[in-house]
Amino acid sequence: MAESLPPALQPPVAVALAKLVKTFPGPNALPGGLTAEPKWDGYRTTAYIQADQVTLWSRQGKELTKILPDLAAALAAQVPPGVVLDGEAIIWNKNRLDFEALQQRMVTSRAALPAVVKKLPASFVAFDVLAVAGQDTRGVQFTGRRQLLEELARDWAAPLTLSPTTRDMELAKTWLQDLPATGIEGLVFKGAAQPYEATRAWLKLKHKDVLDVVCAAVIGPVTQPQAIIAGLPIEGALKIIGRSTVLSTKIGRELSQHLRPAGPGHPWPEEISESSLNRFSKAKGPVRLTLVEPVVVEVSADVAWSGMSFRHPVSYRRARPELDPSGVRVPPELDNRRR
Known about the structure:
Helix content: 10-25%
Radius of gyration: 22 Å
Strand content: 25-35%
Number of domains: 2
CATH class of the largest domain: Alpha Beta
Shape: elongated
CATH topology of the largest domain: D-amino Acid Aminotransferase, Chain A, domain 1
Number of helices: 8
CATH superfamily of the largest domain: DNA ligase/mRNA capping enzyme
Order of helices and strands: EEEEHEHHEEHEHEEEEEHEHEEEH
CATH architecture of the largest domain: 2-Layer Sandwich
Largest sheet: 6 strands, mixed
């Protein structure tokens, strides 16, 4: 008889999350010691496998089954009923993760979707299991859940795959430096003795690139900027590629010493939409920019680069007034991600 899902795991169910840390955590930061795995750049997806159907859900409780028919079919064929998997839906494009391709599926019509799926098929990377054979496994320690997951994945074939893990933190540090070239955002850490809880019980550490950008506008007054608007020369013009996180009063005052109001002929408008700076923002109204004479600033940014902009705010580090804004170029590591 086919196993059904436990009553407490009828979709959608809240998922475990990770708290952002700025430095590599110590060996005892989580119960039972650390296990590290890649932080995938895709859609966090929970898969519910039942005898009569497979459904896929986002961490916000939005059903994704219709835009991921290739994954639903593979899960139905390779995973027994009564299983709930936690993982990431990703798309590989020329040996690099392509988040934009996933987003494209969200706005593709049902008639056009099969062609899009065929051109750039998705993959499902499983990294945890919430139920096996109709039994809730969330109370099992991570090491036990991982053993169950590895047993389930023993005979999987593409597009299903198992996320790698390691307890060797020296290897994990190598991953943190090397894997971002493929679009991996960083690392997630889990405690070997942790149960699965729908809280920020895990930890995440993002890889950061340090680069020079052109600050040609700020939010707030020139004398006390609240955030910088960053630009890079793309396709022959200085394009807005993102904003910074909020500047402290002290940092904003220090930056203001290098800012001058813009003269005529500035390439940017005085007002843009919030969504053009942050596509995930719930605010859709206009953002007023204070245009300034271009100045080079150093920022740190994670690897989530669309080819035209950063998906997340950058972190301001310092002004570089000794550098000529006309000499700033798109760094090779970002330029390579556009191809």
